[in-house]
Amino acid sequence: MDFDLTEEQRLLRDSVERLLGDHYGFDKRRSYLAEPDGWSRKLWSQYAELGLLALPFPESYGGFGGGPIEVMLVMEGFGRALALEPYLATVVLAGTALRLAGNEGQKSMILPQIAEGRLILAFAHGERQARYDLTDVLTTARRKSGGWVLDGAKSVVLHGDSAQRLVVSARTSGERDNPDGITLFLVDGAANGVARRSYPMRDGMRAAEISLSDVEVGSEDVLGEVGKAFPLIERVVEAGIAATAAEAVGAMEAMQALTLEYLKTRQQFGRPIGENQVLQHRAAEMLMELERGRSMVMLAAMMLEEPDDAERAHNIAMAKVGVGQASKFVSQNAIQLHGGIGMTEEYAVGHYFRRCMVIEHLFGDTAHHLSRLADAVK
Amino acid sequence: MDLRYTPDELAFRDELRAFFRDNLPGDIRERMRLGHAPSKADIVTWQRVLNRRSWAAYSWPKEYGGPGWTPVQRMIFLEENQLAPAPEVSSFNITMIGPVLIQFGTDDQKKRFLPRAANIDDWWCQGFSEPGAGSDLASLKTTAKRDGGDYVVNGQKIWTSTAHHADWCFCLVRTDSQAKRRQQGISFLLIDMKTPGITVRPIISIDGSHHLNEVFFDDVRVPVELRVGEENHGWDIAKFLLGHERTGIARLGKSKERVKFAREAAREMRANGKPLIEDPGFRQRVAQLETDMKALEITQMRVVSAHDKNHDGKPDPLSSVLKVKGTELLQATTELAMDVGGPLSMPDWAHELAALSNEPELGPEWATEATRSYLFLRAASIYGGTNEIQKNILTKAVLGL
Q: Strand A121-124 to strand A140-144: parallel, antiparallel, or no bridges (unpaired)?
């Protein structure tokens, strides 16, 4: 048992902190939101220079050989800064799929491009009818002369608008909800038959609805085994849960700091409002929730590499529930303790609030995972 | 960073488990499993078994009769002891008066009291709270006036747990009523409960048990050599106690054991024509508790691991988080066990049990004990600094408000 960061991990955390501190003020963030992609290409190359985009990939593919703890540190930093770049989509989600299931050719072709900041990817799995059910895939892929043809639609694909390549799940056999028969494909975002409608999410991050009609892909673009992608999809989602949990804790830290500052400076009835015990205790409760979130983020990061599937899934579901409940408490009370100013678009707290809200609704919400945990009670 | 136990820590845990399996008397284990409060005899028996291995004084250094364990080992010990389930060692003896004497006691005091505390030859109680001094402990009024080689103690203590069993009481008394700050005129005395002038009156708590007492001191003579630390510096000791060994305060093993028991009992009870364990609402409640316990477990490891590394001796303010969350969970898990019994948890048949009546049972023993425990543990968020006081501590020490 050991909770210390290594020297390298501390350096990583500090350099992320420094980079984002220099480049992610409230106004700068607004200017990135206004860019065509809704995020900063310039910063993306700086992430590449710093090695962040190479972080979780093996050194043999131009990576840094980092693990879940390193990704956790980066994501916490992104959460504090409310970074907009497609790190989750490219490095964490699609990156995990490639790292775990890519063949030699795919990995040596794609991973170095990600590491160098030349390739944006998205993970196109969710569908409109599926809500949080990972097995609910209606998009189909049928064989055609040495390749495949994809038809269907993918919904709320994170950064699906700016991604050059998409990791798309499609049914190659079996009925809806059957975990067997799902296959992952690497699809060029500009391929014939791919149509994308781009929009901002409630937190400003970009996503897309993607339709696929008669999209042809080669057999070399199958990622992993045909019909056997479901366990892989679960791993990708678990990586997404761990990463966004860390991001949420970063956002919670920022909200807690803003709220404390406000309690100390805002004067009412001739004294700082933080002198009211009812508000002090609320702030103490926020702190306790933040600590719960922090502990759960560590659990999720640690469990990502647990070889026992059931054990890993169970613990990561607990982390999703713990962080979901903690971030709801912290973010709702952050607004409440600010009063009116917390409601305004001009003030940061509402932006953190919305990021946490979106994270809660990615990869299964608290109720979804709690009900999975309940199913497992014996 | 690695949350998993090291092979050494796992081996240590297995050693404890094996020892508990082989040495915890079966009748004690069964009473604990059914949720009984451990009797004085059960506590003494088990603490002495542990003390033969130098494990009873689990947080003490070797030179004083403890095992010299690391904080991580202590945490594992507490949890395994609770999971066994075995009676917990006397906290008054082991985590309170022991560390106080080790830190502040004279050589004579250490020699005289520590081995007896470890082996529970002396049963200690704590004389802190008074009718007018609860959360505001420094307002205590019990006085001790010097008269030759003695202090003469007059006043009243209240909420004194197990005073009726106790051989000795460690007491905060006022030795200087003129001190500038209230905290400055307080001293820490060791009082023999057999001294003339002490009256112990029971307070029956809402669970029907006699655990709490009022203790009256009427011209009680206490030799000066039974003062610990300097005269008028007792408040330092009180503060030391508040920060010492708080990691055990979460009592996570106890909560885990209660949830495990509730799950087992829920297989026997019915809900909507099926075993209760299959009821979605019940399962969700269990899942929530298990999630909360997991989070607290990791937070506890973080506090313990930080304590392991920085030996600055200062209490980690995060131990207030452990106290609040730990007691909330303890209360929630005992409530769960009670709710499993449903209406069968409502009969109070402690007296029939005590009388060893041959009449049919009024309800399952575990159910009535679960309710007793639920009622008794309403105190968990009150004792040891109320949970509201803990939030005050967090407000000042961590948030700087």
A: unpaired
B205, B275, B331, B358 from B323: Cα distances, Å: 22, 34, 12, 42
pLDDT tops 80 at residue B361: no
Q: Could you give the ipTM of this predicted complex? A: 0.92
Banded pLDDT at B307 (limits 50, 70, 90): confident
Over range B70-88, report the average pLDDT. Answer: 95
Contacts of B280 in chain A (CB under 8 A): 371, 374
Nearest CA in chain A to B5: A1
Please provide the DSSP assignment of A275-343 as one string.
GSHHHHHHHHHHHHHHHHHHHHHHHHHHHTT-S-HHHHHHHHHHHHHHHHHHHHHHHHHHHHHHGGGGG
How near does any CA of chain A get to the CA of B331, in Å?
Answer: 18
Mean pLDDT, residues A316-322: 98
**CA B17 to CA B12: how far, in whole Å?**
9
Query: By CA distance, what is B310's nearest residue in A?
Result: A4
A368/B344 Cα distance (integer angstroms): 33
- Cβ contact A275–B401 (<8 Å): yes
Active site residue B245: yes
> Does the distance separating the beta carbons of B286 and A284 come in below 8 Å?
no
Non-local (6+) Cβ contacts of A361 within 8 A are: none
- Asked if residue B311 has pLDDT above 60, the reply is no
Cβ contact A292–B283 (<8 Å): no
Say whether A295 and B283 touch across the interface (CB within 8 A): no
Which one of B79, B245, B297, B335 is the catalytic residue? B245
Chain-chain contact of B3 with A298 (C-beta, under 8 angstroms): yes
**Strand pairing partners for B217?**
B155, B198
User: Which among B1, B306, B398 is the nearest to A287, CB-wise?
Assistant: B398
> Do the Cβ atoms of A94 and A119 come closer than 8 Å?
no
Q: Which residue of A has its CA nearest to B388?
A: A281
SS3 letters across chain B: CECCCCHHHHHHHHHHHHHHHHHCCHHHHHHHHCCCCCCHHHHHHHHHHHHHCCCCCCCCCHHHCCCCCCHHHHHHHHHHHHHCCCCCCCHHHHHHHHHHHHHHCCHHHHHHHHHHHHCCCCCEEEECCECCECCCHHHCCCEEEEECCEEEEEEEEECCCCCCCCCEEEEEEECCCCCCCHHHHEEEEEEECCCCCEEEEEEECCCCCEEEEEEEEEEEEEEHHHEECCCCEHHHHHHHHHHCCHHHHHCHHHHHHHHHHHHHHHHHCEECCEEHHHCHHHHHHHHHHHHHHHHHHHHHHHHHHHHHHCCCCCCCCCHHHHHHHHHHHHHHHHHHHHHHHHHHHCCCCHHHHHCCCCCCCCCCHHHHHHHHHHHHHHHHHCCCCCHHHHHHHHHHHHHCC
